[in-house]
Design brief:
By secondary structure, the chain is α/β, with parallel strands linked by helices. Helices cover about 35% and strands about 15% of the residues. It has an eight-stranded parallel beta sheet. α6 links the parallel β5 and β6. The N and C termini lie close together (about 10 Å).
């Protein structure tokens, strides 16, 4: 089953009644596919965006230490915003990681710019690769999201069997909806719960480190609209790094996580670690345990889909 077939089948499943028996247990025995693993070697790649605690090398040995005891069985490398001139080198580095049977990394999402004239020829060099699953690109301006050349190239991605990771600030989510509508044959992955800011969901009286980065109700509405599109799934991740060095509990994060799961449904959500970026607030093990706590009362079958099965099917890892 490829990703387009997976999205079609999950769209049908979303309207069917659940036959699962609810469970109130946190099942640490569920295997995990980490769909958003960052690694970087600052001796090899120049990263201009890294700041403490991220301004050092994070390599496979460090990742293996971070996941120790967490039952992470597979991981997907996510591009790390290297300079454009190093994107091909990063892609080849990621492929080499995927070829190594001694680590859990089995697939990769790379970077390239869908505005580039050479986009099609560049992606054709990876077509048919068992390791490269898609691309991620950060738009510089909202107008780029629905640029005709961007639209054409992201449609081409779907035709080639690749997906597109949608990394947008909350204020641009509505334009993301327009892009998805223009590319119905391309599988999309919404990164990091649409980059929701937990501070926007703190209850009255909760100590806040700063003002919210976006309007709470607008994010709620636009996540509901995004989830109506059948060719997009949502990564449950990234939200802890929005609030560096401020204690976050499962109760703080539950409104965002539950809204995404309830709207996308149990078949279109995937766990993502976002390590080491998550270290801005907590360890990878801390994030996994926090998410387990949030979803503990959901049926065990749904927990397994979130942490393992959906990613395994979507990315064709088995």
């Amino acid at each position: 089953m490829d990703r387009r077939d997976f999205l079609k089948s999950t769209a049908l499943a979303a309207i069917a009644p659940s036959l699962c028996i609810p469970s109130c247990k946190i099942n640490a025995a569920i295997p995990i596919v980490d769909t958003h693993q960052h690694l970087w070697d600052l001796d090899k790649f120049k990263l201009t965006w890294v700041k403490p605690p991220l301004d050092k090398n994070y390599l496979m040995d460090d990742y293996l230490e971070a996941i120790e005891g967490q039952n992470v069985v597979k991981a997907i490398y996510m591009e790390v915003a290297v300079p454009p001139r190093q994107r091909k080198e990063e892609a080849e580095w990621a492929i080499d990681l995927c070829k190594d049977p001694d680590n859990p990394t089995v697939a990769a999402v790379i970077a390239t710019d869908p505005k580039d004239d050479g986009f099609a020829s560049y992606m054709q060099t990876f077509e048919g690769s068992p390791y490269l699953k898609g691309i991620r690109h950060f738009f510089n301006h909202i107008s780029e999201i629905i640029d005709q050349r961007v639209t054409d190239n992201i449609r081409l991605l779907g035709e080639m069997g690749f997906s597109f990771d949608l990394a947008l600030p909350p204020r641009w989510l509505n334009s993301g909806i327009k892009l998805i509508d223009k590319c119905p044959g391309t599988p999309f992955i919404l990164n990091h719960c649409g980059n929701a800011d937990p501070v926007a969901f703190f209850p009255a009286g909760r100590e806040v480190p700063r003002k919210p980065e976006h309007d709470r109700d607008k994010w709620i509405r636009e996540i509901e609209m995004l989830a109506q599109r059948p060719n997009i799934v949502c990564k449950i991740s990234g939200i802890v790094s929005h609030v560096p060095d401020h204690p976050l509990s499962a109760n703080d994060l539950a409104p965002i996580i539950n809204h995404c799961i309830d709207n996308f449904g149990p078949d279109r959500v995937m766990f993502a670690g976002d390590w080491p970026v998550c270290l801005r607030n907590m360890s990878l093990a801390g994030w996994i345990d926090t998410l387990r706590e949030v979803v503990a009362e959901r049926p065990m079958e749904e927990q397994r889909k979130l942490f393992h099965d959906n990613a395994d099917i979507f990315y064709g890892l088995s």
